[in-house]
What does this fold into?
Amino acid sequence: MNPALAGVALAVVIGAVFAASAHRARAAILGLVVTLVGAPAIADPPAEALGLAARLVGALLAGYLLWIATRGHNVRTAGSRVGWPTEAFVAAAAAVVGYGSHGLGAPAAGPPLASAAGFALAAIAVLPVVTGRDVLRVGLGLSLLLSGALLVRVGIGGTPDAFEQVLTAVLVATLGGAVAVLAAAAHADGPGGFEMSAATPHRPSHVGDPSAVRPR
Amino acid sequence: MTVLPFVVVAGVAAALALALRSRPRLSSIAGLLGLAACVVLALAIQPGQVSTLDGGGLATTDYQQRFLVLASLAALGLAVAGLAAGTRRDAAGVSLAVLAAAGLTIGLVDPRAAVLVATTGGLFGVALTLVPGGARAGATVGIREARAVIVAGALAIAATAWIGRDLRELDAQPVVFGLAYLAMATAVAMRFGAIPFHLWAARLADVVPESALPIVTAIAPAALAVVALGWVDVMVVPRPVDLGVERLLVIAVALVTIVLAAVAAFVQDDLEHVLGYAIVSDAGVIVLALAVLEPAAGPPARTWILAFIVGRAAFAAWTAGIRTGLWTGRVADLRGWVRRSPILAAAFVVIAVAGVGFPGLAAYDARTTLVDLALDPPFSTVVLVATLAPIAYYARLFVIGVAPPDHIIESGAGWAPVLERIGETGRRRWLATTWGRNRPFTTAIVSAALAVLALLTAAGVFGGR
It folds into this structure.
């Protein structure tokens, strides 16, 4: 096992645990950025410089957009209800499963550490994605799930070429931007932080107001 | 010409339209010009070219060109209808971004790269969920849409990675093949909002304007469906693996979607939800195509996808026309709509004929072929009858339309073009007034134009026979 690769994989998983469990929004975003920045480095052979640079830019852009969306004093997100130790144990168990089942039935072209980290990220993402009632928390969970799937893809299929890395970077940044826009909209809409709305948006049956015929 | 100019122009125009969103008029102009350019560039694509990219390639095919031409025309029509009926200021920009992603998705040779772009394309629709004055509710719908897109994307990434490698030394049970196939089929079903993954799509109809709904729920996922069909053809069909149980699951999802979504469209009380469920119901046929697992499924499935995107766009434009002309979206309030707008009535009949079809129509034959390939008699006969369920919601709308109106009808007001002479107020004022007075007429004309396009597509004029 490559110790440097193992170190990066550990940092990626720790960042993910932080992102999923922190209650302070910007602390969670920092954890996510660590994960997004470190994930492309878990590859053997390493990704081409252009691809790595693109992934770095995509990760930082996603993090920056989320950072902007959480502007304010002590902005909080729901965080983990089960606490970070539980999240860490879940991640560790999933990493063992990922490492053990590396290749999923056929010789794999990537490192087992990518599969381990990918499984760990996907496992951490389950709770926020499935049970999250907070726009930012669900969004962070989605970013972790995507990163997990991309790591499993690297573990199985090997290091993606530079073009695929660029496409991946665009996807990561777009997801960050989409979550940032939604989180900012929810946060700006009165008290309640990033909490989801229990009510369904009301669409007027009779569009008698002048705004209905203008771009809005 | 390759697909690259199309992708670049659509992407740049999308960025421009979204960057100018604080100036709605300029943003709309940029969006409309971009969509018109997309139509021209899609027509200029020459099939059979391959641009080599790092580790893969970008191919232009005959089908890709037809898809992009029809999707661009549909998006342009919907953008004009949206301007007249009232839409989000980002609608044109989002349409352009979705078209750029669709062009790239269908063109990429490597499915592992294609699913990444298809997922990115799905995320653009989130911008349309932000409702003025209801930001939290809109954001809630938006994050649920993002959840569906990313979960589907993660499944597709895993599936394409698993089968997209050297499997000569495979030591896994065939069940793993089945899981990869099931993951891809589930990804497509989720993106279309197929039942039981439909809740996010149903809520989407609450916030996304009717004229923009097909962009998010039909055109964007259709690009992923095209990739999935190709992937199944190349990666799954040739393998001698029994996928009986997995196929049955996919067939079950498809059939439940076709029937229950049509029933849901029938019972809905407002047009946006009728439209939303009508899109989901027709998408069930695409999910069914993924269950066929024979090379013969590809051509009819691709024909159906073309008819699907144009037909649903025409229905959306009709919905926008009704809302603009009658100032309501409640089905119960639509008594006598046929008498009020002969143009919309004609468009509706054409849309219904194109949507339901009849033997000899390419789309109808494609659907019949898919059902016959997926199921054996007598089940195929039963399912074939079930695919005619959309007749129910079309008939309901038509019966309400021909019923005696429950309020006084202004004779022809709003349904004929209104043109006044340029007075002393100036040309700009005249233009604004004329545009304002012709909104119902504009949406009706766009609806009629898209209806004719839908019928031509369903008839196989743009290929598919």
